[in-house]
Amino acid sequence: MANIKKYIKGLGVCLILLLTGPITFAQTESLGMMESLDPSKIMTILVLIVMLLVLLVAFYLLIILRFMVREDAIRRAKEKGVEYVEEPSAWSKFYAGLTDAVPIEHEATVELDHNYDGIRELDNHLPPWWKYMFYASIVFAVVYMFMYHINGSLPLQVQEYEIAMAEAQANKPNVEEGSSIDESNIVFSDDPVVLASGKTVYDRNCVACHKAAGEGGIGPNLTDDYWLHGGGIQDIYNTIKNGVPDKGMIAWGDVLSPSKMNDVSSYIHTLKGTNPDNAKAPQGDVYKEEVLAEEGASE
User: Fold this and answer.
1) What pLDDT, on the 0 to 100 scale, is given for residue 281?
2) Beta carbons of 220 and 283 less than 8 angstroms apart
3) End-to-end CA distance of the chain
4) Using an 8 Å Cβ cutoff, are 287 and 230 in contact?
5) Mean pLDDT over residues 108-136, rounded?
């Protein structure tokens, strides 16, 4: 009973020490720092502390319970007049099964005749865990050989490299085709595929400022003849690519590929003259390609 009381007293001391730490920490922290912490993080920390305390208490109670069972077994052995022999624990049995080590008191059974200056040699077996790993490595080697070198279902490193290079080569023409487009060589395209792609880009990125039909909102109207930065296909592409920072329009050249900017430029070009409802008032200067073409011909 005295030993049990000692264990219980130790448990109480441990709990007091564990609780004193968080309380002292909370008292020493400044109020501003505590207010800046996310409530969910504070709750998570408290839950972790409580879980740690519960685990420590459970572990300590398990030790006490084991001690009580051992004391009771010793008492009953004395009452029967027999010597108490403690049974090995589950961990001891597991460890013995892994190592297959011969106890020191039984080493004479595996001692060899070799004796070098008083150093004896024992005929110990290989540890089972080592043998199991060796057998597993043999199985792995057989499977590896079959999958990689016989069946060929899994590619070797050289084959993986060749596959990756082939995929890169297959995608290369598309990259070169898109990267060769700029405001100097862009032309209007009425290809339905190009216009459909341009509409998709417009709906995802331009509707917020220019509205769905191009009637204008935060940004200007795209359906009339008035343009702030030029209404030609090259002008539209240049405006999309470089943006208008002082007006709040970002440079889409950092976001969209040249081919996508080409598609949306052609789509915006088709919005001219559509006259949607609730169109925004004209902004900028009149831009008509017919007039510019005539002036260029007269020169």
Assistant:
1) 86
2) yes
3) 116
4) yes
5) 85
DSSP per-residue string spanning 261-274? HHHHHHHHHTTTT-
Closest-CA residue to 236 (of 189, 183, 289): 183
- Residue that finishes a domain, picked among 44, 59, 80: 80
- Residue 244, C-beta contacts closer than 8 angstroms, at least 6 positions apart: 228, 229
Backbone angles phi, psi at 244, to 5 degrees: -135, 85
Residue 177 has pLDDT above 60, yes or no: no
Question: pLDDT above 70 covers what percent of the chain?
Answer: 79
Q: Is residue 152 part of a domain?
A: no
Burial 180-193 (b: 16+ CB within 10 A, else e): ebebeebeebeeee
Tokens of 145: 């050989």
DSSP state for residue 244 in the 8-state scheme: B
Q: Rounded to whole angstroms, how far apart are CA atoms 214 and 202?
A: 9
For residues 201 and 260, the answer to whether their CB atoms sit within 8 Å is: yes
Residues with Cβ < 8 Å from 110, sequence gap 6 or more? 102, 122, 123, 124
Burial string for 107-134 (b: 16+ CB within 10 Å, else e) reads eeeeeeeeeeeeeeeeeeeeeeeeeeee
Q: Look at residue 27 and tell me whether its pLDDT is greater than 60.
A: no
Which domain range does residue 272 map to?
192-292
Helices (H), 100-189: 128-145, 157-179
Do 185 and 237 touch, CB atoms closer than 8 A?
Answer: no
Asked whether residue 226 is domain-assigned, the answer is yes
Count how many domains the chain has. Answer: 2
198 assigned to some structural domain? yes
Alpha-helical (H) ranges within 146-257 are: 157-179, 192-205, 207-210, 233-242
126 pLDDT higher than 70: yes
Per-residue confidence (pLDDT) for residue 3, from 0 to 100: 53
pLDDT at 78 > cutoff 60: yes
